[in-house]
Amino acid sequence: MHLLAHGGMLPHYQPQGEKTISQRRKGVKQGASLMLIGAILVPILGVMSGFAPGRLENVFAFFAALSAIICFVGGPLRMLYAAIFEEAAATTRFVPMSGYAAPTVSVSQLGPARVTALPPQSVNTAGSWPARPYTAEIVQPPSVTDSTTRLLEKPEPEGD
């Protein structure tokens, strides 16, 4: 597909300066890392609030709730903001390789134009087919097991 799209030349992409992460990708990474930090930080603060004595228990519970709100609400919001409003990475542009030039072909070298339509439909129909044979008069051979089955049948006593 690349060859056809670019006139027979292989695509060669040149980088546009130094490679940097786009603002959109950076924002999505920040939101994802914020959620992962929350997945670690909130349980740790919850366990610490369970083992803390007295008033310190309320402090740890407050920080656990605050970090849960910041991480699990702020993380997806940061990712959503980055995906909608921030700029994506610059697109790479195609630069043809300088070592290759497409061959020039004149119209006289191509020869006659190719016909792209199908040939006309032929009027010749198939000849008449022979009639199907009537196979009902062929006698079916007896089954292989018929003679063995007859041996198993018990003859009825004739004297009664």
Strand content: under 5%
Structural class designation: mainly alpha
CA-atom Rg in angstroms: 43 Å
Runs with pLDDT <50, length 5+? none
Fraction in helix = 40-55%
Provide the succession of SSEs: HHHHH
Q: What's the β-strand tally?
A: 0
Largest sheet descriptor: none
Shape: flat
Terminal Cα separation, in Å? 94 Å
Break the fold down into its secondary structure elements and pairings.
Layout: H1 2-5, H2 23-51, H3 55-85, H4 107-110, H5 146-152
Helix pairs in contact: 2-3
Walk me through this protein's architecture.
With 160 residues, the chain is an all-alpha fold. It has a domain at 23-85. Helices cover 47% and strands 0% of the residues. It is built from five helices and no strands. It has helices spanning 2-5, 23-51, 55-85, 107-110, 146-152. Helix 2 packs antiparallel against helix 3. The longest helix is centred in the middle third of the chain and has 31 residues, at 55-85. The protein is flat.
Question: What does this entry show, briefly?
Answer:
This protein has 160 residues and is mainly alpha-helical. The protein contains 5 helices and no strands.
Q: What are the main properties of this structure?
A:
160 residues, mainly alpha, 0% strand, flat
